[in-house]
């Protein structure tokens, strides 16, 4: 049996921010402009001259800043492969080249000389060093939170009721169907091996889907025909793929990078709150779509009378929401639509490919 192997893919080199992240770019632009404001306040004695001087400084600053931000965005995958020191050196070089390239455009034919260029280069190097220090400090500050979120994820996923129910399901068929019970035990061991892996980096969506299919197979041991899972997969190329399995999904969608253990806890909550308490069969629908640089994941399950979703799965949803923030900052979101008949969890995050 092929085991589940979740290959982690880091977004950036250690000590460097992910320059493709919207939150990182917004903080970068804000930090540099704040440094410009501090510089003006220290240089100007007359309060009446602060605003005109700030406008003049901002006019000279925005073009090289936006140019450097654009190059950093485009070069982010290569920076991640340079390592920490190489990546930092490349950031300094990009900042310096942005200042040099924009200098003639800003000054025109005026004779400002090399002294002014050297002064701006020195300011740019100082601002770059300050920004890198800030992002490195922020990463170090959030490292304990990331570790705590990882431990909470592992604790929340390995629930006693899931382990006991899975083992009871295996015991129920071990005499009548020993081969099926043996296969189920292998799947259970494989699933827990994946759950116990290091969860600090992103993994391919295909690995997450494979893990979830193993989990659904285990749940079917005890729920039987009461549990149906329908996968609706769409990579944006055409009409997509729908069915009870996800094996026919397109490679473009399956290579999308997602946080580990993103789908399985959502499926577990859908089964635990929407299928298990019901007396009749029910269907869980998993929709995954890639549209315009955004990956959208929805898990939709029926609502049973007397079952309160908010109490049972708040830990899992809060855990996922926190990990989305740590991985994607402002670019990801988790929304809940709790209707009278269906309960839906929707996750939106930026599309990034493991093949980049």
Automatic annotation (TrEMBL):
Supply the Pfam families for this chain: His_kinase
Gene3D superfamilies referenced in this protein's UniProt entry, alphabetically:
Histidine kinase-like ATPase, C-terminal domain
Top-level taxon of the source organism:
Bacteria
Membrane-spanning ranges: 21-42, 54-75, 87-106, 112-135
Keywords, A to Z, come to: Kinase, Membrane, Transferase, Transmembrane, Transmembrane helix
Judged by the first EC level, this protein's enzyme class is transferase
What GO annotations for molecular function exist for this entry? protein histidine kinase activity
The Signal transduction histidine kinase internal region domain covers which part of the protein?
149-227
Q: What is its EC number?
A: 2.7.13.3
- Asked if the Swiss-Prot or TrEMBL record annotates the protein with the keyword Metal-binding, the reply is no
Give the PANTHER family listed for this entry: SENSOR HISTIDINE KINASE YPDA
This chain belongs to the protein called Sensor histidine kinase
The organism of origin for this protein: Thauera sinica
């Amino acid at each position: 049996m092929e085991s589940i192997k979740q290959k982690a893919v880091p977004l950036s080199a250690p000590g460097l921010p992910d320059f493709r992240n919207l939150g990182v770019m917004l903080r970068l632009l804000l930090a540099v402009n704040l440094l410009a404001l501090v510089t003006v306040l220290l240089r100007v004695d007359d309060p009446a001259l602060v605003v005109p001087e700030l406008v003049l400084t901002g006019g000279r600053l925005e073009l090289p800043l936006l140019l450097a931000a654009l190059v950093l965005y485009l070069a982010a995958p290569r920076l991640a492969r340079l390592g920490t020191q190489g990546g930092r050196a490349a950031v300094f070089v990009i900042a310096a080249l942005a200042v040099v390239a924009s200098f003639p455009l800003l000054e025109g034919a005026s004779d400002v000389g090399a002294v002014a260029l050297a002064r701006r280069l020195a300011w740019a190097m100082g601002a770059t060093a300050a920004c890198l220090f800030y992002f490195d400090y922020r990463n170090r500050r959030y490292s304990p939170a990331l570790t705590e979120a990882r431990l909470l994820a592992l604790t929340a996923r390995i629930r006693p009721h899931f382990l006991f129910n899975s083992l009871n399901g295996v015991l129920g068929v071990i005499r009548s169907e020993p081969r099926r019970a043996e296969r189920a035990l292998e799947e259970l061991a494989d699933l827990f091996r994946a759950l116990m892996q290091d969860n600090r980096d992103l993994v391919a969506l295909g690995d997450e889907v494979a893990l979830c299919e193993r989990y659904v197979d285990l749940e079917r041991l005890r729920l039987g025909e009461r549990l149906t899972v329908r996968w609706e997969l769409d990579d944006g190329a055409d009409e997509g793929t729908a069915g009870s399995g996800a094996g026919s999904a397109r490679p473009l969608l399956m290579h999308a990078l997602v946080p580990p253990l993103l789908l399985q806890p959502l499926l577990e909550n859908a089964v635990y709150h929407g299928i298990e308490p019901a007396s009749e069969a029910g269907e869980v629908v998993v929709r995954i779509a890639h549209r315009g640089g955004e990956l959208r994941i929805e898990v939709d399950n029926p609502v049973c009378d007397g079952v309160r979703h908010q109490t049972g799965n708040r830990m899992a949803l809060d855990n996922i929401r926190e990990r989305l923030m740590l991985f994607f900052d402002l670019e990801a979101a988790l929304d809940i639509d709790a209707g009278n008949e269906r309960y839906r969890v929707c996750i939106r995050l930026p599309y990034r490919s493991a093949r980049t």
